[in-house]
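The passage that follows is intended for readers who have already worked through the single-chain material. We present the inputs for a multi-component assembly, then the predicted structure in tokenized form, and finally a short commentary. You are encouraged to pause after the input and sketch how you expect the pieces to fit together before reading on.
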Amino acid sequence: MGWVNAIIQGVLTGGLYALFACGLSLMFGVMKVVNLAHGDLAVVAGYVAIGIITVTHVPVLWSFLIVVPVMALLGYVLQRTVIQSALDRSVLITLLVTFGLSVVIENGLLQFFTANSRAIGTGLALVSGSFTLGSQIQIGYLLVVVFAVAVVVLLGLQYFLSASKYGRLIRAVADDQEAAQLAGADYRHVFGIAAALAFGTVALAGIAYGMYSQLSPTTGTDTILLFAFAAVVIGGLGSLWGTLLGGVVLGVAQQIGAQINISDEVLAGYILFLGVLVLRPQGLTSRRAQS
Amino acid sequence: MNLVSETTVRPAGSFRVARSRRNVAWTGAGALIVVVVLALFPYIVYSGTTAIIVQAFIVLTMASMWNLLAGYAGLVSVGQQAFVGLGAYFVLILAIHGTSPFAALPVAAIGCGVAALPLWWLVSRLRSGYFAIATWVLAATIMLIIEKFSSIGGGTGMPLPGLSGLSPALLTAYTYWAGLAVTVVALAAIYLLLRGRLGLVLTAIRDDEVAARSSGARVGLARLLVFVVAGAGCGAAGALLAISQLQVQPGAVFSVQWTAEMAFVTIIGGLGTIEGPILGTAVYMVLQQTLASYNAWYLIILGLVAIIVALFARRGLWGLVDEHLNVRLFPVGYWLRITDAAGRTGAMKGK
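Having made your guess, compare it with the prediction:
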């Protein structure tokens, strides 16, 4: 029974990891930006949510309505200023700048909010409650909800990119920036929109993780960024559904590792990641080799 | 004279290729004097000062290696702390088995160079940004594996044995000389590598990778060599770190903060120049010493400065010096001097 439980829990945490990963994947897919500050921004979103809840006493679910648009706006502004000017220089500079941002944000959080971990206390039965399957399997409502949110976000992104006007613009710019520019699309603005979308999902991921576990200044890199990246590589670069599959596979590997030895949860995930890197560097879903 | 004849007809003997505009012998003599003076420091200054300089040696060695990776080979590694940690642990393991930590230092460097081979095989499958995060995951994985061995301290680490027989004054002096030796060897190795064939191949890759490949440059091999050298160098710095702190703690030696420091120091000093990390280390030490009592602030300020420099002064502080004074302490490029019919001379810079 323990193994079945591990697999079910793993699949559900996979939804959370897919939520971590889709912003990273989107920014790479559209702008070829690997945002090393991705996880730290998720932690910032979580901290902002904690701040809003403590100060205004709004219900937890309302904090999403405030934090997600604020982060999306931040994404647009950051993309139009810092990231775009780094992109105009080179890929190398973009990496260095986002790495700089990551370190600055992490140490800033450490300086202002100490190294203590904080959770987003909800007090909602939905979040803390669980239901049981059989006699031994206990499933938290929160993970089910997060998994559903991840699927909805991925479906929404998929629909948005394939069917909406802005989605077409984003794909056009991602395919050929100059041709799209000649056809009248302002690629900088389109990049800004894509970044806003990505940052919105980052905010969702940060708050969800704060509810599921605890946030500390280092969570951004040692958990969110690295797990997101592992999910992206396992699933296959540039594929949204691959990201969900990658998240699920990573989650299951971690839970199976924890089943063998409770302290090996994270290591098991990384070992699977390295295995995929060796045996199938293009990821589980992608057919073409990575360029 | 039309454009074609100007670019194709070149009368024999009208140009000369040189490494530098100035005489390299003077720079060499200067470097020798600097090293000798630095070697005499333990006799002149207080041990507190040499301890600070050892820190500078560690940062300079790591930054020079990171510069070789990112500035010359275009490989942005965010996982160099893997080698810092491995170097520290090599020293610890050898010290536990009775080797002197100072004798273990070169072994640790070589060990890290060898360890870089399988690690390269793993991460070289990914490019640019994904390469960066893959190295980070690798460093995290190595730390998690090392934490599983309780005989070398497990998750909490342990003090470095084998140095308690030395008097404090002697220990500080030995540590200082070891640091000086590591730094001089690291800089000399990088200088000689870049002056030679590898430097040419790397320049060709930087300018146009496809063209370099099609002209027969062995791109993969060049990058592998850089990764191995950088691994060995960061390993030596990690070994030095273990000796200077007298203890090895996994969370500290495998901290991404090391890579952050290497990267910021290099960017501020000047990416892609040997002089850059030296200047950057000076800036770093000043900031770190001034802001030492303000916890993480020096890293925040260093990071912000690095972002601004990366965006607005890509060649860093050394780039500004070079622009105005036109000096190279470590000339690895070539100067082409052209004398035209009228006898005027001009210089063309190539790197």
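Commentary: The domain at 20-332 of chain B is CATH 1.10.3470 (ABC transporter involved in vitamin B12 uptake, BtuC). Chain B has one domain: 20-332. How closely did your sketch match?
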